[in-house]
Amino acid sequence: MPASARVEVTAELSVRPDKCLAATKRAAGETGLAHEAGPDAINLAGSRTEVLGALNRVVDAALEAGAKSVEVKVEAEADAERFG
Description:
The chain is of the alpha+beta class. The chain has one domain. It is 33% helix and 32% strand. The chain is built from 2 helices and 4 strands; from the N terminus they run βαββαβ. The protein has helices at 21-31, 48-64; strands at 9-16, 34-38, 41-46, 69-76. A 4-stranded antiparallel β-sheet has the order 2-3-1-4. The relative contact order is 0.30. The model has no long low-confidence stretch (mean pLDDT 86).
């Protein structure tokens, strides 16, 4: 895999109540980084800058849709070089 295509960070989001999930998935899809992680979760994967920027937009969309809880788990890839 070329270094430019390496995924450096992944973020998993869970949103409650479930009725807010459609709006959250729509916002995540617009980022170009989204991947389904299951019926109740969304994954974003990309560079640190891309993922953290997308998280802001996706969490905002969830809250605007009425979410009472948004859980976010961010992980750096183990083999990624130091990034900034």
